[in-house]
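Retro notes (design track)

What went well: tokenization of the new backbones is finally stable.
What didn't: we kept losing track of which sequence belonged to which structure.
Fix going forward: every design gets posted as structure first, then sequence, in one message. First example under the new rule, 410 residues:
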């Protein structure tokens, strides 16, 4: 083994689970490229979280020996590294070769297969439906009780992390939607975590889920393509949908609450970093031609009652795994919550105020859903926002925390 242990891929995530009273974690590739599911003990997850591509096996062993009871031997660490490599969870040529073949397979497939079934959610349709119903039943009461609805929701912000960690937010959002009239179409504005060369990426493949297929509404998709095409090519990166989980996780929920008589439009939104890091003023995003054209088309569909706009978006990503020097705990998480709630208030006031709020501090807490929340706000100017709940999912073993919220727009 080389001096530096291999690096854990950034797309690898861990969902907590238990069996016979014993806690463990299911590691999975949230990009959906690797189909593997790897069960790790809490110690195994601690080891995985230390694979940063710089530390050696010996250094990881020394650090864990100082920080945890019993620590981890070099042999234990090497065993975890081999298991991660077999699962295609480590960076390197082996994963790159596999990914290239997966791209070819996706382009020739008639529909998009579920990438996260068996990890972020159950692959068994009966267990999955039972879990989703339980998540809605056990969801916390809304922070801000929605008033008497003036109309069905026109927009939602819903988390996109795995169902166990995101349960409170998913439950609050989908419990509300399950009690409202079913929209003819749901446009899922998905976070494009890997970035895009264009502002948007459309996908005309139906989405398969353990609960059944979710068809794409090709009429609204064609109108969005027509609106965007003078300013770019939204079909240029349809391949991005193969490895992006932010639409898939909503498609499963939508199939569950609405049944087979449901249509979606999958629309990935590229990050808007240039408007957050000082490269361009946030106000310029509002006048960007492709943003304006797509937002006007979406807004018209939402206003007419034809479509519900759903931003599949998480909020802050903090902790050493994301580059912070501070652990994801205590006062740091209190500061993160204050910042996130301030951002949500600004986003509720309008698309540009939301971006300006993040730009004021350079998006230091890494709000990964800011692009699709921006497009949602641009499409629904003046909509009334109700915060159903704000939550933080903390995974100490991975030295990270991910925040998210459920928000309804009328």
């Amino acid at each position: 083994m080389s001096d530096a242990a291999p690096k854990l891929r950034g797309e690898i995530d861990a969902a907590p689970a238990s069996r016979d009273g014993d806690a463990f974690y299911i590691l999975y590739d949230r990009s959906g490229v690797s189909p593997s599911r790897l069960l790790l003990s809490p110690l195994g997850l601690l080891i995985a979280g230390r694979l940063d591509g710089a530390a050696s096996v010996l250094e990881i062993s020394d650090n864990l020996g100082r920080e945890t009871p019993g620590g981890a031997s070099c042999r234990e660490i090497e065993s975890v590294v081999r298991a991660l490599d077999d699962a295609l969870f480590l960076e390197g040529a082996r994963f790159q070769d596999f990914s290239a073949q997966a791209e070819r397979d996706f382009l020739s497939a008639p529909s998009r297969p579920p990438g996260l079934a068996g990890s972020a959610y159950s692959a068994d349709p009966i267990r999955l439906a039972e879990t989703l119903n339980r998540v809605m039943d056990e969801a916390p009461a809304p922070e801000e009780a929605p008033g008497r609805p003036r109309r069905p929701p026109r927009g939602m912000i819903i988390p996109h992390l795995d169902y166990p960690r995101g349960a409170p937010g998913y439950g609050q959002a989908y419990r509300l939607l399950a009690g409202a009239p079913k929209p003819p179409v749901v446009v899922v504005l998905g976070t494009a975590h890997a970035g895009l060369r264009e502002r948007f990426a459309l996908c005309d493949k139906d989405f398969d889920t353990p609960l059944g297929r979710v068809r794409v509404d090709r009429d609204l998709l064609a109108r969005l393509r027509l609106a965007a095409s003078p300013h770019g090519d939204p079909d240029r990166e349809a391949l991005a949908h193969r490895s992006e989980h932010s639409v898939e996780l909503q498609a499963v929920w939508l199939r569950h609450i609405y049944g087979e008589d449901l249509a979606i439009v999958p629309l990935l939104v590229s990050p808007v970093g240039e408007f957050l890091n000082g490269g361009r003023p946030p106000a310029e995003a509002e006048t960007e031609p492709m943003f304006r054209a797509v937002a006007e088309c979406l807004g018209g569909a939402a206003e007419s009652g034809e479509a519900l706009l759903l931003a599949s978006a998480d909020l802050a990503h903090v902790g050493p795994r994301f580059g912070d020097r501070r652990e994801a705990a205590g006062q740091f998480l209190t500061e993160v919550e204050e910042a996130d709630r301030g951002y949500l208030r600004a986003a509720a006031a309008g698309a540009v105020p939301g971006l300006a709020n993040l730009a004021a501090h350079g998006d230091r807490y890494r709000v990964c859903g800011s692009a699709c929340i921006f497009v949602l706000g641009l499409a629904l100017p003046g909509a009334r926002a109700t915060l159903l709940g704000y939550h933080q999912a903390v995974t100490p073993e991975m030295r990270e925390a991910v925040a998210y919220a459920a928000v309804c727009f009328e």
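Added context from the reviewer: The mean pLDDT is 93.
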